[in-house]
Design a protein that fits this description.
This protein has helices at residues 16-19, 26-42, 51-58, 67-78, 80-90, 92-111, 116-144, 151-179, 184-203, 217-239. The radius of gyration is 19 Å and the shape is globular. By secondary structure, the protein is mainly α.
């Protein structure tokens, strides 16, 4: 299953649906994909500064605080390859839109969380849908920009937005915590997701079914478990040491 892009400029009088997925709107597609990627990367850090206020409001311990961040990283890192495979199976546009809707819904649940467990569950759900979004966005970028003169520029802009996400998350988290509430570090994702969703529905071509690849279930389980172990190991060593074998307290 793939997403096709019309290389010709739309003729005069064609409807908006005829322009969807056309080469003429490729730079607007980059804006949509960049917005989604920025949201995914900034969400890894946007809650950092808001954690003390969230801890005071929900009443969880210092030892549990790390799981608000680690829960997102574990789900995102361990399910990335699976998310990319699902994009091949169901179509990049469908996976991208599903990821945006799911990410926004998880953000709303996290912002309205009345307990620590719900907050962590929402963060894990965010990581899961981010694992759908990120590979789908990169795949859509690859099929949108195929000309050698434009491709490096598009990937450079996309990479810059991705790299800036961590810094933007810290700044945005501090501003929202100071001027509003810690809950808005979750709600703000709805704005990013909403903008990207409208753009995706208007600009991305509907997928054309060509072939349905098979998913290697045992391989997927092994790779996801391995990635989970790697991400968990690095998250665990940050608060303990490389030689500590005891699990962190959830």
């Amino acid at each position: 299953m793939s997403t096709t892009f019309d290389r010709g400029a739309p003729a005069s009088g064609k409807t908006d649906s005829a322009r969807r997925g056309s080469h003429a709107v490729r730079w607007w597609v980059l804006v949509v994909l960049g917005t989604a990627q920025l949201m995914v990367t900034l969400d890894a850090t946007v809650v950092n500064i808001a954690l003390p206020e969230a801890q005071h409001d929900l009443g969880f311990s210092d030892g549990s605080r790390q799981w608000v961040i680690t829960g997102y990283a574990l789900a995102f890192g361990s399910l990335l390859l699976l998310g990319g495979r699902l994009g091949d199976l169901f179509g990049r546009r469908t996976t991208f839109v599903t990821g945006l809707i799911g990410f926004a819904a998880a953000s709303v649940v996290g912002g309205a969380a009345g307990s620590f467990d719900i907050l962590v569950a929402a963060r894990v759900a965010q990581g899961l849908f981010a694992a759908l979004l990120a590979p789908a966005a990169l795949s859509l970028l690859s099929v949108t920009f195929t000309q050698p003169t434009e491709r490096p520029k598009a990937f450079g802009i996309f990479s810059a937005l991705s790299g800036a996400g961590a810094a933007v998350g810290l700044l945005l988290g501090g501003m929202l915590t100071e001027w509003a509430s810690w809950r808005w570090v979750m709600y703000v994702n709805v704005v990013f997701a909403g903008v990207a969703l409208v753009g995706a529905l208007l600009l991305l071509a509907k997928p054309v079914v060509t072939a349905r690849p098979r998913i290697d279930i045992p391989g997927t389980v092994v790779v996801s478990a391995a990635l989970f172990g790697i991400v968990y190991g690095f998250a665990h060593v940050e608060s303990t040491s490389w030689t500590d074998r005891s699990p962190s307290d959830p």
